[in-house]
Amino acid sequence: MTTVRYAPSPTGRLHLGNARPALLNWLFAKANAGTYILRLDDTDTARSTEEFARGIETDLAWLGIAPDLKVRQSDRTALYDAARDRLIASGRLYPAYETEEELDTKRARARLLGRPPIYDRAALNLTPEQRAKYEAEGRRPHWRFRLDGRPVAFDDLIKGPQTVNTVSMSDPVLVRADGSYLYTLPSVVDDIDLGITHVIRGEDHVSNTGTQIEIFEALGGNVPAFAHHNLLTGAEGEGLSKRLGSLSLAELREAGYEPMAVAIVAVLTGTSLALEPYPDLAALQQVFALSAVSHGSARFDPAELSSLNSRILHQMPYETARPRLEPLGLASEALWLALRGNLSVFSDIAGLATLVTGPVTPVIADEDREFLVQAGELLPPEPWDETTWSKWTDALKAATGRKGRALFHPLRLALTGREQGPELKSLLPLVGRTACLARLP
Ligand code: GLU
């Protein structure tokens, strides 16, 4: 049974880059009839807020993600405490008393000697007397995980065989001096407890994976499979920070982007697959596989998002659009089919609909007035359909000798008041004869 988790920290709103692991996990779960868990990593109580937690759920729902289970790390401290105690008992977690300044000094000294600034494990050699002395001074220990000192290998489902050399890493601090947990241990404890089979996350976590595999093993848990994806970056390769407001999912939604346009960009940028306007996540899931994620960069191009958004709207079936057209009083299939090809964002529909319903201010150039009067005289009788436009303009062409732009453009300007817009052959029957006549001189 496949079980995955998406594990954001509720310390900000989700942005486009966060949508990538959220969706990769979702698509993987769906492809394998698996379970999707939303895990809020809220152990940082100073920065986590209820509002951000709600925001994350709103954003995921907007993308079409409905977690099967939601958990919060702040509810699960007892599990972490139990794991901590087991690691202490087995000698893998040890107390260290250095202050930040002392650690800084050690690092500076190592650099000076041309050595890597790795923690020297001095705390492992403390005698009980030395510890007691520190405690008496009021020092509280932080707790470090004693790494095994051997390379940790795993087969990444995206990146292929990986080796993390924990020899070149400092023993990580798992518990702060105030007793609170850093991300590393709670994540492993939850992955074991919740039966996570696949951990799909950004490649910034590869070295954590080395440490975490050791912790899985130290706790006797099943080590899940790992897949580390490339991170979405800006055009210059810069990270999409959580604080980059304009790319937050909330702001993209406000700007009128379709969730599927955002989802396709978030998933398919930096893969071997083309960004096509898939209508829903199920269709995206049909083409997507983790193996398509490239080993290189994933550069986000805002122009691609806009173009995808338009393409999604241009081929959106009426049945899909209808629930959104109804509140606008625009639920007409003919209207939708006539106008959808000119939408950049869905809300453009209201402005475009005025081309049918009016008011339209006709634009009539002096040199076209005569021609347009003739056009009014030659307007075919109703009923009108999609062939009316060509019948009408053929007749006008024969009568006036005008063709091409000279024939069509004055008609468009008079009938719509705009230089460009939806195809007149579809628009004409919607406007109707009376309104058309009224827009001609
Ligand atoms: N809270 C971590 C993050 O947002 C989760 C990483 C993971 O998936 O393990 O980076």
Topology:
Blueprint: E1 3-6, H1 16-31, E2 35-40, H2 50-63, E3 69-72, H3 77-89, E4 93-96, H4 100-112, H5 128-136, E5 142-145, E6 151-156, E7 160-165, E8 173-175, H6 184-193, E9 198-202, H7 206-218, E10 225-229, E11 232-233, H8 249-254, H9 259-268, H10 281-287, E12 298-299, H11 302-314, H12 318-325, H13 333-339, H14 348-357, H15 369-378, H16 388-400, H17 404-416, H18 424-431, H19 433-439
Parallel strand pairs: 1-2, 2-3, 9-10, 11-12
Antiparallel strand pairs: 4-5, 5-8, 6-7
Helix pairs in contact: 1-9, 1-10, 3-6, 6-7, 9-11, 15-16
What would you say this structure looks like, in words?
This protein is α/β, with parallel strands linked by helices and 441 residues long. It folds into 3 domains: 1-89 and 150-167 and 181-315, HUPs (Rossmann fold); 318-357; 366-439, Arc Repressor Mutant, subunit A (Orthogonal Bundle). 45% of the residues lie in helices and 12% in strands. The protein contains 19 helices and 12 strands. A 3-stranded parallel beta sheet has the order 1-2-3. The chain has a 3-stranded antiparallel beta sheet with strand order 4-5-8. Helix 3 (77-89) crosses helix 6 (184-193). The longest helix is centred in the N-terminal third of the chain and has 16 residues, at 16-31. Bound molecules: glutamic acid. The site of glutamic acid (GLU) has 8 residues, from loops.
